[in-house]
Amino acid sequence: MGVPVETDEITNRLVDGFESVSEPVSLLPHGLSFNKPVEIHIPHSGSESVLSVQVLHHPEDLSFETVPATSFVNETARFGTTHFSTFVVTALTKPEVSAMSASTTNFSFGKATACGCNGQAVVDAIKAHGDLSGWGGVATPEWVGSPYLGAADEVKDSRECANPALKGTKEYRNCAAGFGGCGTCWKFTTRGEANIYGNTAPGEGKVAYAVVLDNCEASNAYGNNQQWCVPYSNVAQPCNAGANACYDDAEQNCPNDDQVLGSFEDTGAWNPGDSCGSLPTMSNVDGWDCTNLAGQATHFDFAIDQANNVPWSANDNPLVTAEPIKCPDAVITILKANCGSNAPVDCFNYCSGNVPFYWPDCERPPPTPCACTGCTWDDGATCNSSEWCNKDKETCLSCSGGSWCEEGKYPVST
Fold first, then answer.
1. More confident residue, 6 or 228
2. d(CA 317, CA 10)
3. Which tens digits make up the pLDDT trace of 196-207?
4. Would you say the C-alpha torsion 209, 212, 218, 224 has a positive or negative sign?
5. Taking a C-beta distance cutoff of 8 angstroms, is the pair 135, 326 a contact?
6. Where in the chain is the domain with CATH 2.60.220.30?
7. Torsion-angle region of residue 188: left (phi > 0), alpha (psi -120 to 50) or beta?
8. Which residues make Cβ contacts (< 8 Å) with residue 260, sequence separation at least 6?
9. Between residues 340 and 250, the one the model is more confident about
10. Domain 2-92 maps to which CATH number in 3.40.50.970, 3.30.1330.50, 3.30.1330.60, 2.60.220.30?
11. How do residues 370-400 score in pLDDT, each as one tens digit?
12. pLDDT, position 378
């Protein structure tokens, strides 16, 4: 049975930028599970807000996770669960001042993005939508994307463009859940100021909009991002790192600027250390003291050629004021159709279960266990019922950590 619990005890654990719009409800006793999902209804007062349902799985948990596949109808949140946990409906709060100075560059999306979306399908749908003129898709850097809800990776030696000090370190690149992370929407107003190339086009006051679909990582895994998506301290004036914009170029052309390496915590949060102040959040962007080499507080890789009538060209790269906004329903509908389990990519579900709340209703087909037939662990042991074959059916992955399964099926816990 769902019962109210002490409100302050629960809501004090919400992160900045969220407020509760319902009484917390607990299914007791914690630790039990239903044999099949049951539907939970929680009334709330946030009818005009960007809403989500947050869950604490255990009383000792210090932070919430987002409940995927939630619908909000008639001031009631509806979702399914198999767990006896504590739930609360939350709204995204928007401070009076949350804008950031930002640089922009041209970008393009393929079928797989770090947000678990078919990026090409998303921007194609935006471009074709009559009510989304001026809209497109963007990628954002780690300091506004953090924390990340995907799996950790290691910075490889093959990333010659990156700072050598990053190689061999742990990084997270997928499923950004920060205030500039996956599924967040932004308004951009051009400032008419010269960028690092001396270009002021298209002038001041031009407005565009975009939704975040991808990550612009500091390790330069998928492009030369040293100029734009790497944080620096002591940038007294904007610096052009050069045509290749790799670490060595930046060292040569911008010798007085210090790259902030930071580090990733096991939670997927990026920690800048003591050099940059505090990471920007929905309620506080002023505590962030670092910039990219262009001297801007953040950056947006904007898929201009794939956008819907954005008022600048692919070569303009204007400086903008970037402001987080509520995503229109049309954008949410497009995300639901092309992200998470609905991304038309084989088993493309690495954000599943932790899909950011901005597109929570990615309906998936009923999960079918991926039978672990003829698979063994590397040491020859046979897989058991809670483990699944990998994509090639040659080795096993734990159900909780595996992301590959037979085509058309999804790994589920037993």
1. 228
2. 44
3. 999 999 999 999
4. negative
5. no
6. 2-92
7. beta
8. 231, 232, 233, 272, 273, 275, 276, 290
9. 250
10. 2.60.220.30
11. 444 445 444 455 554 444 444 444 444 443 3
12. 46
Identify the CA nearest to 216 among candidates 122, 164, 145, 151.
Answer: 145
If phi > 0 it is left, if psi is from -120 to 50 it is alpha, else beta; for residue 285 that is alpha
- Rounded to an integer, the average pLDDT of 65-85 is 78
- Do the beta carbons of residue 295 and residue 301 sit within 8 Å? no
Residue 69 has, within 13 A of its CA and on its CB side, a CA count of 18
Distance, CA of 26 to CA of 46 (rounded, Å): 20
CB atoms within 10 A of CB 3: 11
Q: What is the pLDDT of residues 102-161, one digit of tens each?
A: 999 998 998 888 888 889 999 999 999 999 999 999 999 999 998 887 778 888 776 788
CA–CA distance, 284 with 118 (Å, rounded to integer): 31
Task: Give the amino acid at 321.
Answer: T
Strand-pairing partners, residue 267, are: none
Which residues does residue 4 pair with via DSSP β-bridges, in sequence order?
25
The two three-digit tokens of residue 407, written as one number: 């085509």
Burial 352-367 (b: 16+ CB within 10 A, else e): bbbbbbbbbbbeeeee
For the cut 60, the answer to whether the pLDDT of residue 350 exceeds it is no
Token pair, residue 320, equals 């903008």
pLDDT given at position 401 = 34
Output the DSSP codes for 185-201. Answer: EEEEEEE----TTS--T
Contact 301, 125 (CB under 8 A): no
* Rg of the chain in Å (alpha carbons): 22
| Residues whose CB is less than 8 angstroms from the CB of residue 351 and which lie 6 or more positions away in sequence, other chains included | 115, 116, 149, 150, 174, 175, 182, 339, 340
| 189, amino acid identity | T
Nearest partner of 291 among 106, 144, 98, judged by Cα: 144
| Cα gap 124→300, rounded to integer Å | 19
Tens of pLDDT, residue by residue over 80-96, are 788 888 889 988 765 44
Tokens of 329: 């329903």
Residue pair 352/341 in contact by the 8 Å Cβ criterion:
yes
